[in-house]
Structure formats: structure tokens, C-alpha cells
Specification:
Elements (H helix, E strand, L loop, with lengths): L4 H11 L1 H30 L7 H15 L4 E2 L4 E3 L3 H21 L5 H25 L9 H22 L2 H8 L3 H31 L1 H11 L2 H28 L4 E2 L4 E2 L4 E2 L27 H17 L4 H26 L2 E3 L6 E2 L2 H33 L16
Helix pairs in contact: 2-3, 2-4, 2-5, 3-5, 4-5, 4-6, 5-6, 8-10, 8-11, 8-12, 10-12, 11-12, 11-13, 12-13
């Protein structure tokens, strides 16, 4: 009987999953919507010329919350789908916390427990999303109830599952129990993706600094005043990560669009009239010169570093496994960067405003090719060149020598 006590405790805890998940999902919604509601109401109160009712400002905040999940808003002409990724990141963080909190509260242990936690949160979150989509409808602006429910449930499922795994001791044990080759490929791909994103962020900030005069000219043309200028500045801040992902597509090769029938890449620039948004003033208007085209080598260098990292952890295992693993690093990096491109792709309406951002499949293919090639080269260099250099210059390089470790 004593041995059955822990199982009884666990069964009682498991029975509370729906209730705990419902509370966590509602808190994630409140925590993300509250700042948007506060900002919308403050802007409405500060704008003495506004004749719209307060409920319209609140509904606009609700639509912004849906938009941050990637839910398109149907307009009278076309659709609006331009994700403010800074808000998206905050929402995913809240959902990750919800997953970790629920998993700890119900004492999740195995994969099944953590998946059930994430599924419960996803169901409740999707229902809440449909309710917000129904209530947040404005004249000429609406979101599909079913699409909102599905997209929000998918986001909640992914974010809360990651949170449950990373934010609990049992989840971290499950991740540590994965085959070493899976963990090593994932870690190396993370190195490559992080390198590309950091370079893209730096490039975006440099371009904004160089084009600061053009950016301020766009702001001056609006004549927004203090309240409007502050709102536009906040809008630029929340969309800055989105533009940084455009820079990632630029560095990888395929580039991005700033309107229908436009292309901005290292080797080609085709532009029509660019929308008057301050961040777009930093978009290149001419192809890159010879020196700037060296940006295309950065993904290969990121792959090189990832390949060295993979080989260092993979040890002196068979050559075939090493090379296949290095190729897998490139493939996984392509999938991850292609996924970020999906978030950065969007539309501002119909016609010329229907295509903004990178093409996800192109980003995935270019990233997999360049990072994969660099990863194979880096793994090969670490496997064969480092030992050869070690024999010539023993000592400090021992720290990066291949370790005698076989994968599980």
C-alpha cells in the first residue's frame, strides 16, 4: 500500500490538469492583452479629436493581439497580416510560462503528461481566441473565428510544450534522454541560426543609423504631434524584429519584397513606390557593391562554426555519421530560418500592398544549402585538420580537438 501512495497522489494531480490549464491559459491572455488595452485607451483619451467610442479602441487592441499570433484581419479591400513580432515574442513567453507552471502544478513526468498539459492549454487558448475574434470585430475589420481558434491553438500548443519541457526538471530530463546525435545536431543548428539572426540584427541597426535622415523625414511628413509621434515610435519598435528577419533573408540571398512585384536582395533591387513607414526608409535602393556582397558568405561562416561545434561534440564516431549529421545541421537550420520567414511575411491590403517580406521556401532552401555546405566543411576541418595542426603545434589547440566519444 505504501508503494501505491505516490501513484494515488499523481492521479489526483493529473485530474486537475483541465482546471489548471484553463487558469494558465486565461492568465496568458490577460497578461498579453492588458498592455495593449492600456495603450489603446491612453491614446484614445489623449486624442481630443477622436470621435470613436471607447469600445472601438478596445476592439482595436483585441485585433492587434490576434494579429500578433499571425491571424490575418480581413479588410474591405484585401487582408492585413503583418505580425508585430516583439508582441509575438512576449505572448510566446507567457504561454511558455503557462506550460511550465501547469506542468509543475500537476507533477508531469513523462512525454504523455507534458503533451496533455500543452493540449489542454491549446484547447482553452483557441476557444478564448475565437471569443476575442468575435467580440473584436469592427466595421470593415474582422478576423475569422475558426482561423483564429486554429492558429492560436497551434501557437499555444508549441509554446506551452516547449515551456513545460524547458521549465521543469522532469522535462529537462526528458530532453537529456534524447539520442546524443539529436541533441548535437539541434545545438549546432542553434549556433548557426543564432549567428545569422545576430548578424541580421546588427545589419538592420546599421542601415537605420545610416538612413536616419530619411527615417526622420518620413516622421516629419506625418505631422503627428506628441501623441501620434509616440504611437508611431512604439509601432516601429514592435515591428523592428520583423524587419530584422527581412535582413536575414537579405543576408541569406533570396531577399524580400516591399510590395507586389518588388525585390530587394544583394544582387537585385526592383522597387515601386515604397509605403511611407519609417522603418522602410532604410531599405536598400540599389544592389550591393562588391564589398557588400561578402554578406552572402556569412551564412557559410555560420555553418562552418556549427560544423565545428557538431564535430567537437560528436567525437571520433564514423565518418559517414559525421557528414550526415553535418548535413542534418544545415537542413534543420533551413527549416528554422524558413519558419522565421513565415512570421515575417505579410500583407497590408490588396494590389501593390499584398506582398511584404521574404518567401519562406526560398529562405529555407538558401539557408539549408549555404549553412549545410559550411557545416560539412567545418566538421571535416575539425575532424582532420585540427589533429594535423595539433601534431605541429601541441598545447593550446587541445581544447578544440575531437573527443573520443561515441553517440548514443
Amino acid at each position: 500500500m505504501l508503494n501505491e501512495a505516490p501513484d494515488e497522489v499523481r492521479s489526483e494531480a493529473a485530474a486537475s490538469i483541465p482546471v489548471t490549464a484553463a487558469i494558465a491559459a486565461m492568465w496568458a491572455v490577460v497578461a498579453a492583452v492588458a498592455p495593449l488595452l492600456t495603450l489603446a485607451v491612453l491614446v484614445w483619451l489623449a486624442d481630443s479629436r477622436s470621435t470613436a467610442p471607447t469600445t472601438d479602441a478596445v476592439r482595436l487592441a483585441a485585433d492587434s493581439w490576434l494579429l500578433a499570433h499571425g491571424v490575418p484581419l480581413t479588410l474591405s479591400e484585401g487582408s492585413f497580416r503583418f505580425t508585430p513580432l516583439l508582441i509575438t515574442a512576449f505572448i510566446c513567453w507567457q504561454l511558455g510560462r503557462a506550460g511550465a507552471t501547469t506542468a509543475r502544478a500537476v507533477q508531469s513526468r513523462g512525454w504523455g503528461d507534458h503533451i496533455r498539459v500543452a493540449l489542454n492549454i491549446a484547447v482553452y487558448y483557441g476557444i478564448l481566441g475565437a471569443v476575442v475574434a468575435l467580440w473584436g470585430r469592427l466595421p470593415g475589420v474582422r478576423a475569422s473565428l475558426w482561423l483564429a481558434a486554429l492558429i492560436l491553438a497551434g501557437v499555444a500548443l508549441a509554446a506551452s510544450l516547449i515551456g513545460a519541457l524547458v521549465g521543469t526538471e522532469s522535462g529537462r530530463e526528458l530532453l537529456a534522454g534524447l539520442p546524443s546525435v539529436v541533441r548535437n545536431v539541434s545545438r549546432a543548428a542553434g549556433v548557426a541560426v543564432a549567428s545569422v539572426l545576430v548578424v541580421s540584427a546588427v545589419l538592420t541597426l546599421v542601415m537605420l543609423a545610416v538612413s536616419l535622415g530619411s527615417v526622420t523625414d518620413v516622421l516629419d511628413d506625418y505631422s503627428l504631434g506628441v501623441v501620434g509621434g509616440t504611437g508611431m515610435l512604439l509601432l516601429c519598435v514592435v515591428y523592428l524584429p520583423t524587419v530584422m528577419l527581412w535582413s536575414a533573408a537579405y543576408v541569406l540571398g533570396p531577399g524580400f519584397a516591399v510590395g507586389a512585384d518588388t525585390t530587394v536582395s544583394v544582387g537585385e533591387v526592383q522597387l515601386n513606390n515604397i509605403s511611407a513607414f519609417p522603418l522602410l526608409a532604410a531599405v536598400p535602393t540599389t544592389p550591393a557593391n562588391t564589398a557588400a556582397q561578402l554578406l552572402l558568405t556569412l551564412p557559410v561562416l555560420a555553418g562552418l562554426a556549427a560544423g565545428v561545434e557538431f564535430s567537437r561534440r560528436y567525437g571520433c564516431a564514423p565518418v559517414r555519421g559525421l557528414l550526415l549529421g553535418a548535413l542534418a545541421v544545415g537542413a534543420l537550420s533551413g527549416v528554422l530560418l524558413g519558419g522565421t520567414a513565415v512570421l515575417a511575411d505579410g500583407s497590408l491590403g490588396a494590389g501593390a500592398l499584398s506582398d511584404f517580406g521574404p518567401q519562406a521556401w526560398q529562405v529555407a532552401v538558401f539557408a539549408a544549402g549555404s549553412i549545410g555546405a559550411g557545416s560539412v566543411a567545418g566538421a571535416a576541418i575539425h575532424r582532420w585538420a585540427v589533429p594535423w595542426v595539433l601534431r605541429l603545434f601541441p598545447g593550446p589547440i587541445e581544447a578544440v580537438a575531437p573527443r573520443e566519444e561515441m553517440p548514443r
